[in-house]
Amino acid sequence: MTAKDLDDLYQRMSDRLNQIKRQRSEHDEILSFYAKVLTAQHEAQQETVIPEIDLQEDRFKLKIEEGFPLIERENFPVDRDGTERLFKKLCQISLDENPVLAAAGKTLLETMDSGKTEFAQLIGAVLKNDTEVIESIAKDLEVDTPILQALAKLSLQPSLLATAAAVAQRAALDDWKHEYCPVCGGLPAMAALVGEEGKRQALCSFCGHFWELTRMSCPYCNNTKQEDLRYFYAEGEALYRVHICEKCKGYLKVMDTREGGDLKGLAVDDLATGHLDLLAEEEGYQRKAPRVLGI
Ligand SMILES: [Zn+2]
Ligand SMILES: [Zn+2]
After folding, report:
1. Which ligand is nearest to the CA of 168?
2. Calpha distance 201→189 (Å, rounded)
3. pTM of the predicted protein model
4. How do residues 194-216 score in pLDDT, each as one tens digit?
5. Which ligand neighbours the alpha carbon of 244 most closely?
6. Tell me: the pLDDT tens digits for 43-76?
7. Nearest ligand atom owner, CA of 187
8. How far is the CA of 74 from the centre of ligand 2 (A)?
């Protein structure tokens, strides 16, 4: 993926968001908020400069063969200044546009301006998914942990996408046959069936990379027993399926692009199908990976 591809990705996410907004007026408020988030991320993406990645192609080849993701989460190169600018912008958008997040947005803007936020520490903890550190920073700043974590993650997204794009361009990832992301090892946030044969493409919950799920198995526990793996639809909604695994009780939402939608806009579909998450949770299944977009 090049810079132009990343532009195209944001354009298609925005298009998909507007399409869903027209079709489902009940999501209007939340989607208007995320439209602003996407615009801010897109602008930040265009200015994002990540430190050079040491692309040792021999090593990459070996890692792919052995099933090791190419870059560990904590080693993702980050445009620190750009991330901080986007974080402040997202706090401002939260304050202006989102009643649920307004208080946290205000508090965070104030602490950022007064220099009280250990921003570098926060970014490091979010990359590592070190919940203990994130919790302690949230407690100090008197904001909810999930909100702080999500705003920081949304701010990191341009760096993560730039890294995934740079890596995917240089390494031959087509031979990857695993249920976790070849770039970062992340689990799928959601998946989509594409093409006539319905190949399954997964969207990485961490770095936003798409890769093909080749095995008919549960992406979370590798269970291949077909009698444990089922899926259900919501009534009158052929576009989405919820795949469930009886062994680990995980579920994965899957969009069938033959029915509509756009693979590149999948992060938005994930956001707009909270009703399916609720349905799956009511049936006793758990979501195993976070959204790319979303609190
Ligand atoms: Zn990834
Ligand atoms: Zn499973």
Report:
1. 1
2. 11
3. 0.95
4. 998 889 999 999 999 999 998 88
5. 2
6. 999 999 998 887 777 888 888 899 999 999 999 9
7. 1
8. 26
Cβ-based neighbour number of residue 284 at 10 Å: 10
The maximal CA–CA distance of the chain, rounded, in angstroms, is 57
Tell me the pLDDT band of 295, cut-offs 50, 70 and 90.
confident
Taking the CA of 220 as reference, the closest ligand is: 2
Neighbours of 100 (CB within 10 A): 14
Q: How far is CA 51 from the centre of its chain?
A: 22
Q: How far apart (Å, rounded) are the C-alpha atoms in residues 35 and 266?
A: 14
What's the CA-to-centroid distance between 281 and ligand 2, angstroms? 15
Nearest 10 degrees: CA dihedral of 173, 59, 187, 225? Answer: 80
pLDDT at position 257, please?
Answer: 96
- Tokens encoding 221: 């526990």
The bound ligand whose nearest atom lies closest to the alpha carbon of 285 is 2
Give tens-digit pLDDT for 224-246: 999 999 999 888 899 999 999 99
Please give the distance, rounded to the nearest whole angstrom, from the Cα atom of residue 164 to the centre of ligand 2: 26
* Token pair in block for residue 106: 């205000």
* The two three-digit tokens of residue 128, written as one number: 């590592």
